[in-house]
């Protein structure tokens, strides 16, 4: 989750917020609204870039688009340096560390000493520290945890508050998620105009999910208008 941002530079949540369970009936042609909810760890390609690629092709892509660390440090030393910076109050390091605990890159153990697959509680603590300093990625990541109830008690109102703070700083995933939230009325009063406003902000920055969501909303509005016209 660095977002889940740049060290998680991108924690994307990607769930079809509007997905419906199969009922055996013919699927609707109505476009799907997509919310981002996936956390990407440091050094890991976002899932959208992995689609259709073999492990070898993913490794080659990493070399092309991601900087290669050549500082002579071991992964353990880099982690210790990151934790030191985080403990000293560096918001970027705190967000990155939170992302590592969320994804399981950073090892945590339970009370019995068993290694956890991931540690969302510790992740939430580091995201909180960074979010308090106004770090947009951490605000988004913490918002995701509140929205899903991972590591913290589920609180959609708090999630909206954090997404809004992040979105106002230009975080496109937060903007897209707010669009979905206002469109669906999750934790807020349903407001299609606000949904469109946030989708437009993210779409203007090239966010593919927001562009698709905006198209879906406009198509739905057009269908509703045509149906209303036919009833006149």
TrEMBL record:
PROSITE patterns: PROKAR_LIPOPROTEIN (PS51257). SMART domains: SEL1. InterPro entries: Sel1-like (IPR006597), Sel1_AlgK (IPR050767), TPR-like_helical_dom_sf (IPR011990). It holds the Pfam family Sel1. This is Sel1 repeat family protein. It comes from Nitrosomonas europaea (strain ATCC 19718 / CIP 103999 / KCTC 2705 / NBRC 14298).
